[in-house]
Amino acid sequence: MRPSTVLLLPFLAIPYVSAHGFVHKVWIGTETFLGNTPNAEPTSSIVRQINNVDPVKGATNPDVNCGNNAQLASNITDANPGDSMAFLWTGGDLSTWPHNIGPMLTYMASCGSTDCTTFDSSTAKWFKIAQVGRIPNDTDGNWFQNLETAGTAANVTLPSNIKPGAYLIRHEIIALHLATVKGGAEFYPSCSQIRVGGSGTGAPTAAELVSLPGAYSDTDPGILVPDVFDTPPPPYTFPGPPIAAFVGASSSSPSSGSGSSSTPTSSAPSSSPTGTPKGKSCKLKRAPTTPSKRAIARPAHMSRIMRDLALSFGGSAH
Ligand SMILES: *[C@@H]1O[C@H](CO)[C@@H](O)[C@H](O)[C@H]1NC(C)=O
Ligand SMILES: *[C@@H]1O[C@H](CO)[C@@H](O)[C@H](O)[C@H]1NC(C)=O
Ligand SMILES: *[C@@H]1O[C@H](CO)[C@@H](O)[C@H](O)[C@H]1NC(C)=O
Ligand SMILES: [Cu+2]
């Protein structure tokens, strides 16, 4: 038996406990909500529950919509145009988010005349309100997603002129550490239910509305990204539609050039670690002797190791 095989046996034999993850906490305006823990008894939350913390694989997978087997949520919260929102992603065991490479995108969809608690999101027409990629001018080329690995929620502003109504907010991480090959990208969508008040008039145009799945393809330049590990980092092309024009027209845009209204927050859980290693692209907590530990000690190589492992084992390792 080759040494590498010995090393990998526990990696394959022990089921996942905490790798990957879900939206554990959401802030909307002044309200805070816990997410719904996958497979636990559903709570009264605004966050639609998924049944599996694993990534959605494949751009046309029906679960790209709102996550794995997403269920209706029983609550909806009131919000106002211009409100701050924040989305904290964690591992399945509430450890910090394990991935750090790839964009975070935010979409909304009208729930029509419903209050979203009965709205079938597979019929939704989505528009994009924000997207963030790499942190501007970060000397290490870190992505905003990396902030989640330190327990910092992604902060998104509700468009300041948005028309009143009930909406789904779809916050999505696309993890790209395996995206050098087709089908490698990992989609992590999460949908929450909000009712926007006020007297705004902002709305997307018909051309800005997309279906999910539908808006993405496995060969989109932002989803199949052969140069994702290159240095210096090449420009990144976000997948999906552009940010709806009314969003930029109605709010003061930050200077990131990504058209994003997202800024990081410091809404960290008390257990936030400090000094999170860079390049921690797949934290496999349960197996301290697996390559993940070695990779954390040698962060620059982490993602390649994970990718190679996944390829060696037909992609099932991740
Ligand atoms: C629903 O959310 C609101 C906050 O928007 C909260 O006040 C209310 O208690 C929640 N309802 C339930 C049943 O949890
Ligand atoms: C990034 O660097 C460029 C060139 O030095 C500068 O013009 C720009 O303002 C910087 N952006 C941020 C967000 O710091
Ligand atoms: C989001 O960031 C803004 C400043 O950029 C801050 O005022 C706000 O409190 C943050 N929201 C949350 C929920 O942390
Ligand atoms: Cu993973």
Automatic annotation (TrEMBL):
Q: The Auxiliary Activity family 9 catalytic domain covers which part of the protein?
A: 20-225
InterPro entries for the chain: AA9, AA9_LPMO
Sorted alphabetically, the Gene Ontology cellular component annotations on this record are: extracellular region
GO terms (BP aspect): cellulose catabolic process
Residue ranges of the TM segments: none
Q: Which GO terms describe its molecular function?
A: hydrolase activity; metal ion binding; monooxygenase activity
What cofactors does the UniProt entry give for this protein?
Cu(2+)
Subcellular location(s): the record lists: Secreted
UniProt region (Disordered), positions on chain: 249-301
Q: What is its EC number?
A: 1.14.99.56
Q: Which UniProt keywords apply?
A: Carbohydrate metabolism, Cellulose degradation, Copper, Disulfide bond, Hydrolase, Metal-binding, Monooxygenase, Oxidoreductase, Polysaccharide degradation, Secreted, Signal
Look up the signal peptide feature and give its range: 1-19
Q: Name one Pfam family in it.
A: AA9
Q: Which reaction does it catalyse?
A: [(1->4)-beta-D-glucosyl]n+m + reduced acceptor + O2 = 4-dehydro-beta-D-glucosyl-[(1->4)-beta-D-glucosyl]n-1 + [(1->4)-beta-D-glucosyl]m + acceptor + H2O
Q: What is its main location?
A: secreted
Chain intervals with Low complexity compositional bias? 249-279
Q: Which Gene3D superfamilies does UniProt cross-reference here?
A: 2.70.50.70
Q: Which family does it belong to?
A: Belongs to the polysaccharide monooxygenase AA9 family.
Q: What protein name applies here?
A: lytic cellulose monooxygenase (C4-dehydrogenating)
| Species of provenance | Mycena rosella
Give the classification, highest ranks. Answer: Eukaryota, Fungi, Dikarya, Basidiomycota, Agaricomycotina
